[in-house]
## 1
Amino acid sequence: MSQAKGVQLTYDDGARAVELAREAVEGFVVNGRREQPGSMIDAFYNRTGAFVRLESTRGRGSLRGCAGGYESNDQLGHVIVDAAIEAASEDSCGSEVTPTELSSLTVSVCCVCNVVLTDDPVADMELGTHGVAIDTGSERGWLYPTVPVEHGWSEAEYLGRVCRKAGLPPMAWQQEDVMVTLFEGQIFRERDPEGSIEELTN
């Protein structure tokens, strides 16, 4: 097992990350353009991965988009903007977020602070803390750290679901030519659409 450390955010940094993601989503959905991060806070100049997750509060609720990556050579502020736009686009969940949906979406940002390359993901994984990425070189898939807890999955079930997302058989994570990466991130999210922001802790 090998680890690579990333950035650590304060609560204010995380709250601004969520605000930045929402601004990027709104700029894309309403105006059809990529908003620049503007005057970035110091933490946003760090080069690390990030994910943005959009969830609908309408009806029974549903995932409306999720995008990003666990590693990046770009500055965090730009990674958040790009992930937010991709999450709102039709490339994420099959249909683009519409302007009428914005007031019923909650925005969540996961800023990667630790990456673990592992030969034994079941032993090294902590459910609710680690996201999982599967990579064969041609097929890739990943899931957000909170997903297995939300669905009550075991470590093996979680790995199998990520494999399926990558278009692989559920047990592919056990194969030697499949790289499994665990990523740990700080997750900040809106409690309600456009509402107060909380940091998720285990």
Note: The chain is about 30% helix and 30% strand.
## 2
Amino acid sequence: MCALSVCEDERLKLAINLSFSCSLRLGELLGLTWDCIDISPEAIEENRAYVFINKESQRIRKESLNALDGKDVLLVFPTNHKKNSTVRILKTSKTESSVRKIFLPKSVANMLVDWKAEQDEMKEILGDEYMDYNLVMASTFGLPLGDGAIRGPLKN
């Protein structure tokens, strides 16, 4: 039996499909933003829908962040707990060869269209409570997801 046929978690289905069809590492998947995706109706119809991979999400130690002095760091996400010794960041890709444009199968492009519509609906419902970081894989409130948000459900 195929794992996708028994998966009821829409976020996990999308994550699995994006990971396999685009050969994404988990950090790349979690760092994917809507401005790096073309899923316009024309692009889907003409088989040129794509994702552009140029950044990744990563959790690093606060002292490592200070040592980096902003190098390769695009965004530092706010933390809920001041006592945390780590922080989640959005950073540039590790190497130049990691930056790539990947064309999407129509099925995955259409999944992204549906996912975007659900996310936009949630933004409208939550209003100012939605923290919009433009992330494809975001929490209900728009915050970045940790690795466990994908790994945990995947194990189940």
Note: The radius of gyration is 16 Å.
## 3
Amino acid sequence: MRIGYSFWGFLGPGVTDTPDGGRSHRRPLVDGLLGRGHEILFLQGDRDRTEAGDDLGGAYVFDAGFPDVDVLFLEWRWAIEGRNTTPCGSPGHTCDLHRQADLLMHYAQQAVPVVIWDKDRQLSGDDPWRRTLGATVCEAALVPTAGAHRLLFPVDDALLDAADPTVLAAQPRPVGLGYVGNQYDRDEAFDAFFAPAARTVPHEVGGKWPRTSAWPHVTFLGRVPFAEVHRIYSRSLATVLLLPERYAAAGQMTQRIFEAVLAGCLPLAPAGIRGAETFVPQSLIVRDGDDVTRRVEELRALAGSKEHVDLLAACLERLDIFRLSRQVAALDSVLAQVTAYPEGARP
């Protein structure tokens, strides 16, 4: 089918000074859909070309208008004060929210089915779009909001199949704890789990963390290029899966888990994450900062051993839930369902 795809971010590595966790999984999902014979028209700006100067070739088509499509697929955007709520053309303005509103108005009036992927859990449970005829919501959570479909962040099958835990366990890992990600709504988890361990464990934190005065002992690297994410995790023994509470309560795991594990960095999961045992072995579930410190010390003693290899193998096995082929099939099923009825109507 012909899919109008709205996202605000990059397909390639993009630029350093911007948040966009989708860089690790958006392009594999798009390529997976193209591989199934769908046609995709990107309906936001081509930021790879205009901001990063990257030409990704003719496989990707951008359209600034309102082309005929069978379904509108949105990576949901929300109001961010001072950025996309300001008048068009004003300093620092991004037009993602305005464009999304225009797309929704146009295609809803045309009775084109709409699929909303609420990747950041910003769509409230009582949002009218959850009750709008012809609109369907997907969430990247083990336990989606009632009425929503599960669509997890995908990781390329080829990367999973090529990962060798023996090779990964043999790499030198001078950093005890590594983390790459932005601060957004993670202060509580960071303060409870990462910051206490950072007092004694060699560590690195990459990403945008503008408010760090509470943790003067933590080494913050600032934002790092996308390609640097793999390097940081490749030199780190472990990481902590830091989630905002709204993610943890629904069992919504970010792409950080497969960015880390594919680099051989063992993920420690706070016990409060719903379904934590789905994402990591029981021995890698932690309950506080002291638990993180002890576990890193134990892992350091195991580094390079068969037990270390087995732990990495168990973590890689648990990534199967994110496998690209599974997520493309899940999205394909949703697309088929929403386009099965005339004019976007559903029974």
Note: Residues 4 and 194 are 40 Å apart (CA to CA).
